[in-house]
Write a structure and sequence with these properties.
- Helices cover 69% and strands 0% of the residues.
- With 193 residues, the protein is an all-alpha fold.
- The protein starts with a helix and ends in a 5-residue tail after the last helix.
Length: 193
């Protein structure tokens, strides 16, 4: 049973990391920038089905964020995203697992965690890679952490909400209807809504 759990963690981590890197290839900075649509976050719905999703999604986020350091050249500033971005994914997935009996509420976990945590370090990361104003404005990032946090709170939260409810919720509904997931949920003694 332990090896099955570890295998699930690994598969989920690999799926999350791969989806994030594919998003970066096709959507560029939309997987990491000030306005984020990280498609891989839709996989947070897996936490509605298995506790292995919590460490799996977290590990996948760590892998993707480390890969981004190499691909984008953010250097040590990218470690902010590795640590705090992965913390946001962990907290969001954990909330989703804990609230799994109420999927629509559970999916708010990743939205809130990312909206509250990511904008706190995003100004430092953006300045480190050459952004000097709040995107779509002429407001300097220097000395305007509060405005940038508010901008990030809205844009990161909105992007995450779109991913979780437009992509994630239908994914959850589809997965819940598969014979495999029905069997797994019955084995765990729960049902999907």
């Amino acid at each position: 049973m332990k090896s099955q759990y570890i295998a699930r963690v690994g598969v989920i981590a690999a799926a999350y990391a791969a989806c994030t890197l594919v998003t970066m290839l096709f959507l560029g900075s939309l997987a990491w920038g000030p306005i984020q649509f990280r498609v891989s976050e839709a996989l947070c719905v897996l936490a509605l089905f298995t506790p292995a999703a919590v460490p799996g999604l977290t590990l996948g986020c760590v892998i993707a964020n480390v890969a981004n350091i190499v691909l984008s050249g953010t250097g040590m500033l990218g470690m902010l995203d590795v640590v705090f971005g992965s913390l946001a994914t962990f907290l969001g997935a954990l909330f989703t697992w804990k609230m799994r009996s109420r999927p629509l509420i559970a999916l708010a976990g990743p939205v809130l965690a990312n909206a509250l945590i990511v904008p706190a370090y995003l100004p430092l990361l953006l300045q480190g890679i050459g952004f000097y104003t709040i995107p779509f404005t002429s407001i300097s990032l220097d000395g305007s952490w509060g405005l940038m946090y508010l901008f990030g709170l809205v844009t990161t939260g909105a992007g995450e909400a779109v991913i979780m409810y437009v992509l994630g919720y239908p994914l959850q509904r589809s997965l819940a209807n598969t014979p495999f997931m029905k069997r797994e949920l019955a084995h765990m003694g729960t049902t999907a809504k």
